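Good morning C.,

I know you're traveling, so I'll keep this short. The sequence:
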Amino acid sequence: MIKTIITGVTAYISTSIDYLLILMVVFGSTPKKQRWLVYFGDLLGTSILVGTSLLLAFALGLVPATWLLGLLGLIPVGMGLKLLIWGDDDSDSEVDDALRKHRSIILKVALITVVTCGADNIGIYVPLFTQIEHSAIPVILVTFLVMLTLFCLSGYLISRIPKVAGVLEKYGRYVTAVVYILIGLDVLWDGGTLQHIFFSQH
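The tokens, ready to paste straight into the viewer:
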């Protein structure tokens, strides 16, 4: 269970470091008396992404060869390399547009979460869910919930500490990229893909 929790924590952090900056913007743009609604919006948006990832992972789980599923590890590896080489193309304009278009705080934050984190989260979570035992999924989901709560609280605190936000904005890209690559390599290894490609007997 410890390994499962660590895996869940690592996966969540890797997809959410940059999102801390988004949360900072959201908290700064939300009236003080309604800021608690940001948490439920984040929860709704993340639930949509996790649910989608689980469905995709279940469908891919029908593939008979385990090492083929391991190829999904190339997705986070590619995402990490892309982030290192070209940077992150998320923009605050997407956040601002969503905040202007919708009235409900919860729906606004959920939309922001899906728009800004969708590709990254699904790209990391689908390979993860295809490699773990079904019995470990509830542990991963609870871990995600705890991490979401901590990150939402951190986003609120960061919105009040500009210097900390500046450090994350400067180095968050590199930390995220490295973790993406490590997760991808772990999926490739756990799925037996690397062993099959480099060590299989012909």
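Safe travels,
E.
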